[in-house]
Amino acid sequence: MSELWAHTLTWAEVDPARHPFEMDDDVAEELASLVAPLLPSAEVALEDRRRSLDPVTEFLVGRYGRWACGWNWSVGEGDIDGGVVEAWCCSSDSVTTPEATAPLVVEALREWRGWLEDLTGRFAAVAPPRNRPVLSADLWYWERACTRLVTVVADRTQAESGWYGHCMQVLRWFLASNGVDEGRAEEVVENAVGGRFGSWIAPDVLVVDAVSSRFARGLGGIR
């Protein structure tokens, strides 16, 4: 079910510029009414956790695109480990009655989309300049970008269980947004981060500096 698994999302699939999305209060109310019949009972949600929400996720993905499968990627040990969404906890705790739960789904979707839009702005703010040839100083831009992105993801995920998975994903997204192909991006991020972050603890300054330096060196001469 990789199409419903937020950990596998690529930048092309989540880039807000490629996937327009608008939701005012009327649209949110309509969406909640469409989601409500798809929700499991509280008993089923408690027994089957994430899979019980597959009908909801399939509906949202079909309506808005695959980016929407991250709607329940909550902070900590929720339906998907190590995310940023606070409006939704997990199926076993968040699912009650359809009338009460459906608006939570919509709120969580909007929060997830807001995070993606926030990342777009952050990516633009830290991207290396594109209007001049590569110099060794360009490595500083990549290093700064890594430091800032690691810091913001650690903050948004509260550095809880599995947070580093999304952190590495965000770094890959940043590289993809700057024209680095997926294979190269995965290699650079894995070499920079692999094994250096852990659950339930935010990395200290020395660790972030070391990761950022490795990240930058892996991108030497990319432009």
Fold blueprint:
Elements: H1 11-14, H2 25-35, H3 42-48, H4 54-64, H5 91-94, H6 98-126, H7 138-156, H8 163-177, H9 182-193, H10 205-218
Helix pairs in contact: 2-6, 7-8, 7-10, 8-9, 9-10
Detailed description of the structure:
- The chain is an all-alpha fold and 223 residues long.
- Helices cover 57% and strands 0% of the residues.
- The protein contains ten helices and no strands.
- Helix 7 (138-156) runs antiparallel to helix 8.
- It starts with 10 loop residues before the first helix and ends in a 5-residue tail after the last helix.
- The model has no long low-confidence stretch (mean pLDDT 93).
Distinctive features:
mainly alpha, 10 helices
Number of distinct helices: 10
Distance between the termini: 36 Å
Helix percentage: 55-70%
Give the overall pLDDT as a whole number. Answer: 93
The sequence of SSEs as H and E is HHHHHHHHHH
Strand content: under 5%
Shape descriptor: globular
